[in-house]
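Quick bug: Pre-mRNA-splicing factor clf1 output formatted oddly.
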Amino acid sequence: MLGNIAGARQVFERWMSWEPDEGAWSAYIKLEKRYNEFDRARAIFERFTAVHPEPKNWIKWARFEEENGTCGLVREVFGLAIETLGDDFMDERLFIAYARYETKLKEHERARAIYKYALDRLPRSKSAVLHKAYTTFEKQYGDQEGVEDVILSKRRVQYEEQVKENPKNYDAWFDYIRLEEASGNVERVRDVYERAIAQIPPSQEKRHWRRYIYLWIFYALWEEMENHDFGRARQIYQECLKLIPHKKFTFAKSDSSFEFVRCRTLFEKQIEWNPSQTQAWIKFAELERGLDDLERARAIYELGISQPSLDMPELLWKAYIDFEEYEGEYDRTRSLYERLLEKTDHVKVWINYARFEINIPENEDDEDEEKPVSEEAKSRARKIFERAHKVMKEKDLKEDRVALLNAWKSFEQTHGTPTDITNIEKQMPRKVKKRRKLEEDRYEEYMDYVFPADDESTANLSKLLQKAYQWKQEQGNIS
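Here's what came back:
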């Protein structure tokens, strides 16, 4: 209003020294942009991303450079973002934005390299949208080989996660090896075989070794038949014989066709012998899923969660829910959450249920694009938070209630309005110190939560009782 830009800048600088929220930094940047002070705005962005290094803020900086800078500066920002965030804080949105920028410049090989770099480093649970974006990219700008490479990359990440979670999952190793053999990359195939045979069974029982031995056999056969490296094949057989306990193994067992019927039989016997073993159910279902038999996988999960004495039922439920969500069966996923909530009121289940609702794409065409969360999705998530809060209030689950309110507040800060945020903040409890009696002359101090809504209800009840007492006295005086 006064045109005192230097004065405004001084105020902003004092404000920035307190490292305020993102809105304050954005306002400062807008000031400099209005007066075409792009170098100053650039310097503010550098400080802004140091204080708030979330991926969305790096993307804002890159878009600023796209509008006001050069392609070199845009690439420099994205490169700095990837370096700063590192493997632990990588986000698929950053790579999608970077790749799409290169695509706009018709730098298709650069874009492809960015997608592949990200897919090799991000776990499958954090890269679903990235996979779909890459698939769309290859369909538009790639050839048949490129599309097949996308599919291979997606399955490669899936198998990497499986063997990382359970290195002794030999069925997952077999699936991974078959994938790499189909790709035709000799070094990749050899690397997976070497990693697989390094996973020696934990005991010397024959049943543990039966599946493991086939890894060695197929490795040797592959070197002999595909690579014609007879010396290496012979070396593999010799190393295998050294490992086997008591020299019980003979190569007469090695038929060249791998039958998954045997795997199924092994799993069936395992769960028949010990139906409480959660990991066995998960591995069995994953085997069927790897064979693209989704109905069999689903039936195994259903049978597994019906067992009365699972050692870790929460893991099996999570695996089943993740399976349905990954397959895009959102109604089935929702039904599973509802069934699980009939068995437990754990706060994490409620929070994950709400998060699931806001992550559902509105339609299949939008799955590969980053779209704003719809009001309908926000409404569904809020209803779940409200249901959870009511249950925890009724059951007096104070710690869980606090955790839920914190998650709800975080949700509103991302997706809600200032009014929504204020409404949740009004429900946040305060900590108070209380005393409780242990024995006749002993007391203990402890911390408790007092919720504003509960205080209000108690106050209203006290007023009601007071009025009832006054009415009773008045009736007695009249008589």
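Actually, after a second look the formatting is fine. The beta strands are 430-437, 443-450. Closing.
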